Amino acid sequence: MVPVEYYLVLSAAVFSIGLYGLLTRENALLFLMSVELMLNAANINFVAFSAQWGNLTGQTFSLFVMALAAAEVAVGIGIILVLYRNFKDVDVTVPQSMRW
Known about the structure:
By secondary structure, the protein is mostly helical. It has a single domain, classed as Orthogonal Bundle (Helix Hairpins). It has helices at about 5-25, 30-55, 55-85. The chain is elongated. The mean pLDDT is about 90. It is an enzyme of class 1 (oxidoreductase). Its EC number is 1.6.5.9. Belongs to the complex I subunit 4L family. Keywords: Membrane, Oxidoreductase, Transmembrane, Transmembrane helix, Transport.
């Protein structure tokens, strides 16, 4: 069996890549992808510790996180479509405020 430390290192790397993408990108689609990476890093931790301790609680909670990620993408795509419709760009630095 693979030691849990390997999964923790993988999770830390994926989370760090997601955090870097969230802090440095200006494209709204890349924001969503970076948040998905961070949520997947949390899922790796949940599943790794669930397998180590031999219960299904972490895997069950990981399913809830995946459902949350799907809802987040649905709302995020709606916001991105409004952003593109109003400003003809998905750059988040262009709009100063979302006015009617």
